[in-house]
Amino acid sequence: MDFDKIIERKNTDSIKWCGMEKIFGTNDLLPMWVADMDFSPPLEILEALKERINHPVFGYSMLKESTFTTIQQWMKKRYHWEISESWVLPSHGVVTSIAFSIQALTKPGDGVLIQTPVYAPFYQMIEANDRVVVKNPLILNDGKYEIDFDDFEKKCQSGVKLFILCNPHNPVGRVWTKEELEKMGFLCEKYGVNIVSDEIHADIIYNPNVHTPIASINEDLQGRTISLYAPSKTFNIPGIQSSFMVISNESIRLKIQKTQQKVGFHGLNVFANTVLDVAYKHGERWLETLISYLQSNIELATNYIRKEIPELKVIQPEGTYLLWIDCRATGLSDDELKEHLIKKGKLALEPGTKYGVEGSGFVRMNIGCPKPILIEGLRRLKKAFQE
Asked: What is the CA radius of gyration of the chain?
């Protein structure tokens, strides 16, 4: 796979490349905002989709029995977690699964705990379902985000019904250690809080960090956790909308299934079923090459920013292909940051405030792109902050 190859994405209905007018007021920017990559997925996925398209009938489809086995094997090999076939429930996407979980396990007015700054749909799904956002703000300590466990316990003790964990964390890039997960898990057990664990970035981890599913730690946590996965970030196929939940607790699983039935969810489409099987069966070699490429992109971006834009500070990511950049030393307000990036740099980045007030003064940059695009993006970032 030639990750340096630039693939033209304009005029493909891409939100990232064609949807900037609505968000940024102009389409003449270099897009490094939405979390999809500018790479072609593994050849095996493309070939499988072509083969399926060559069959002229596109009726209702189902997951093959072998797909469940493939998922089990992936979980065991990548995360050292043995799961049962019956625990796997398909879903269109991780955000959809979060909504199902909130509806199934909480009632209107219940508190739902999140760790901010965090992925915006966490807030949106809680509020759209008439639940209450309860925040456990992360602490930035010497360039690394940490959990305020005293506050975490207070929030669990306050009566929250559900904790939405983000691991690896979007946007700050932390891969929570087993010890951190055990501590959060212990407090959730102590106060009877169920867990929804968004692990969509679980496959994009940089050494020496290791991804640990919180549900794999012990049986109690396994029994109170809904774990969310998808091949979408891993293999750059988010537009196909293929994901799944892993739920060992039969009672919780039945509640989720009932919630799915209420909205008429009847499974994945034919292409989503195809990629779910092929991606995990044949994509590992491509993934390992991708991770090496992304690692070199991170190093390139970090070194460039340190030398050329020293007033900015990169929070070193342990996972994901997203850079969380601290711009507070510029003295610019969030509106001024946005204006500088758009008008001077002609660069589309995610504003930190999208992830909560704790993101004020930060921006998120997607480095999942060919190096020529990354280098141009960094040049524009420098230009945005030049007087």
From this structure: 21
Contact 239, 34 (CB under 8 A): no
> What is the residue whose two structure tokens read 């420098």?
382
Statement to judge: residues 275 and 353 lie in one domain: no
How many angstroms separate the CA atoms of 284 and 290, rounded?
10
Asked if 119 and 203 sit in the same domain, the reply is: yes
Indicate the SS3 state at residue 195: strand
pLDDT tens for 41-69 read: 999 999 999 999 999 999 999 999 999 99
Edge-to-edge strands of the sheet including 362-366?
313-315, 322-326, 362-366, 350-351
Residues 192 and 66 in one domain: yes
Cα distance between residue 232 and residue 244, in whole Å: 11
5: Cα separation from own chain's centroid: 24
Rounded to whole angstroms, the Cα distance separating 345 from 339 reads 9
**10 vs 317: CA distance, rounded Å:** 29
Q: Is residue 112 part of a domain?
A: yes
Inside any domain, residue 50: no
Tens-place pLDDT, residues 357-382: 999 999 999 999 999 999 999 999 99
Tens of pLDDT, residue by residue over 291-341, are: 999 999 999 999 999 999 999 999 999 999 999 999 999 999 999 999 999
User: Does the residue 181 lie in any domain?
Assistant: yes
Residue at which a domain ends, from 252, 281, 310: 281
Helix axes 149-157, 178-191, angle to 10 degrees: 20
Return the half-sphere exposure (C-beta side, CA atoms, 13 A cut-off) of residue 68.
13
Banded pLDDT at 387 (limits 50, 70, 90): confident
Which structural domain, as residue segments, surrounds residue 312? 15-42+285-384
Cα 308–Cα 309–Cα 313 angle in degrees, nearest 5:
125
